[in-house]
Amino acid sequence: MNERQRRFADEYIKTGNGYQSAIKAGYSESYANNRITELLGNVGIKECINKQMQELHKNNTMQAEETLSILSDIARGKRELKRGEALRKRI
User: Fold this and answer.
1) Transmembrane stretches, by residue range (predicted)?
2) Number of Cβ atoms within 10 Å of the Cβ of 27
3) Which of 46, 6, 1, 8 is nearest to 25 (CA)?
């Protein structure tokens, strides 16, 4: 997979819009308009998108589980939420 294809995959993950992602990745408007199906069907691009989406899902799941654990502890009186704690954990 070349650099432009990698940029396309990164942009597609952010926006979900193939045309805009192709333009931002450096493809011409004509190419983006006519060949978006080919880009999205490219095995390397699909694998890159799937891998990154799985990683994002994994990270979001972990954050949700951590948040639920903190809230459960607070509800049970096992801990208090300190000011800014939730923000620090996200960074």
Assistant:
1) none
2) 20
3) 8
Chain centre to alpha carbon of residue 91: 16
Q: What is the pTM of this model?
A: 0.64
* Best CA proximity match to 52, nearest among 24, 14, 2: 14
What contacts 21, CB < 8 A, 6 or more positions away? 8, 11, 12, 14, 15
Q: Which fold has domain 3-75?
A: Arc Repressor Mutant, subunit A (1.10.10)
55 is written with which tokens? 């990683």
| 79-91: pLDDT as tens digits | 776 665 555 555 5
Tokens linked to 41: 């069907």
Q: From the CB of residue 59, how many other CB atoms can be counted at a distance below 10 Å?
A: 10
Question: Closest Cα partner for 52 from 88, 2, 16, 89?
Answer: 16
For residue 74, give the amino acid letter. Answer: I
Cα–Cα distance for residue pair 68/49, rounded to 1 Å: 28
